[in-house]
Specification:
five-stranded mixed beta sheet; Double Stranded RNA Binding Domain; 5 strands; flat; 38% helix; alpha+beta; 3 helices
Length: 163
């Protein structure tokens, strides 16, 4: 009886792993080009490579190249007159294009902006302000990359402009 249960569990685990291994194979593979922007560019590049690798879409020899840039801006965020706490708003903008190296044209373009804010501590002595800014930038970047990957599911990669 114990051997039968063990064999059934083995069969179920084999079926689950075979379904997982075949899921998410896309016919388009991509390579990530160099992304400038110092630390923020490095975070965007790592996020793109990680997400593309998770979906088995990352290939260094691919004809499709992902070109991207990211920008963060921050400013004082005023909600209304009654609030006594100051807030700082951080906007993150990302522009991602897919370039076809064989046809020498851009096949897909994605542009998105997201905003978040945090309650500003009253003094520059608090490390919580800089920590909040860095965490929000990383969270915004991760969210925008996931949105970009999700937008690729219904894309045909047809040249938009031939040089």
């Amino acid at each position: 009886m114990f051997k039968i249960k063990l064999l059934i569990l083995l069969l179920i685990s084999y079926l689950i792993t075979s379904c997982i291994n075949n899921a998410g194979d896309y016919k388009f593979k991509m390579n990530v080009a160099y992304i400038g922007g110092e630390y923020e560019g490095l975070i965007l590049s790592n996020q793109l490579k990680s997400q593309l690798n998770n979906f088995r879409m990352l290939d260094k020899n691919s004809q499709y190249e992902v070109q991207a840039n990211i920008a963060h801006s921050q400013g004082l965020y005023i909600t209304n007159i009654d609030n006594t706490s100051d807030r700082e708003k951080i906007d993150t903008s990302v522009n991602i294009s897919i370039f076809d190296k064989k046809l020498d044209c851009f096949t897909y373009s994605y542009s998105e902006t997201i905003s978040q804010f945090y309650v500003l501590a009253s003094s520059d002595q608090f490390i919580s302000n800089s920590t909040a800014v860095e965490e929000i930038k990383v969270d915004n970047t991760e969210y925008l990359v996931k949105k970009f990957i999700n937008s690729l599911s219904d894309t045909a990669f047809i040249c938009n402009d031939i040089k």
